[in-house]
Amino acid sequence: MASGKGNKKKQEDSDKYSVLLPTYNERENLPLIVWLLVKYFGESGYNYEIIVIDDGSPDGTLQIAEQLQKIYGHDKIVLRPRPKKLGLGTAYIHGIKHATGNFIIIMDADLSHHPKFIPQFIEKQKEGGYDLISGTRYRGDGGVYGWDLRRKLISRGANFITQVLLRPGASDLTGSFRLYKKNVLESLVERCVSKGYVFQMEMIVRARQLGYTIGEVPISFVDRVYGESKLGGNEIVSFLKGLLTLFATT
Ligand code: GDD
Ligand code: MN
After folding, report:
1. Glycosyltransferase 2-like domain: which residues (predicted)?
2. 109 lines ligand 1 (CB under 6 A)
3. Which pTM does this prediction carry?
4. What domains lie within the chain, and their CATH numbers?
């Protein structure tokens, strides 16, 4: 394990970070994302655990996760599988129940979200005592790489409509690379009605409503190389429905 300056500095730090990794058919990506997480947490010296929530992936993601658990240890890799694909929103809820950290990091497992940004999230949180830190593709050095025009338009469009309708005061609403205080995330999840992709947006809109403080860190989102996105036409329709429900109820 790396023993840099960071390690010593943070030894007395009692904070613990639970990383939630929802997976559905991510067998190619999981070993690398876990390796990178272990590397960056090791270098920065923060205490952590990685919770893999696999939804019965037919490609054998869970078996890969079991091997990773043998390599890195049961205290670092925690497996909380579910029998079938039940959606991203409920995967997070399931993961939170098993998290032992006082902070929770949610991110995609397909390498679109690079673990190198996590130490920046943590430092930003400590700096301002924020309730949540949101990775943003739409500020500063943030950006999106590898998406076709269709995906870019959908993401920009969803952000734009939501900004106009709900004025949440955060630049990236649909992104899902975030750090939360655990109790804040729990209180948000309790109030969130949406499932699926709109969930991310509802979380940040509700956070603002409840007066939680939000810090932002620019991130680059790189489209997956292995496997495919689970965002289809159905998700877009349910996103719009969810947005309208939010508009009507907040
Ligand atoms: N357990 C579980 N169950 N995991 C899932 C499910 C599910 O039903 N559906 C997707 N995942 C996992 C994937 O394996 C991946 O780790 C992560 O959730 C994101 O899924 P992708 O399919 O890669 O999403 P995307 O790249 O199309 O969408 C990304 O960008 C959107 C818009 O910015 C995600 O970050 C979305 O959350 C985001 O809204
Ligand atoms: Mn993806």
Report:
1. 18-187
2. yes
3. 0.90
4. 2-249 (3.90.550.10)
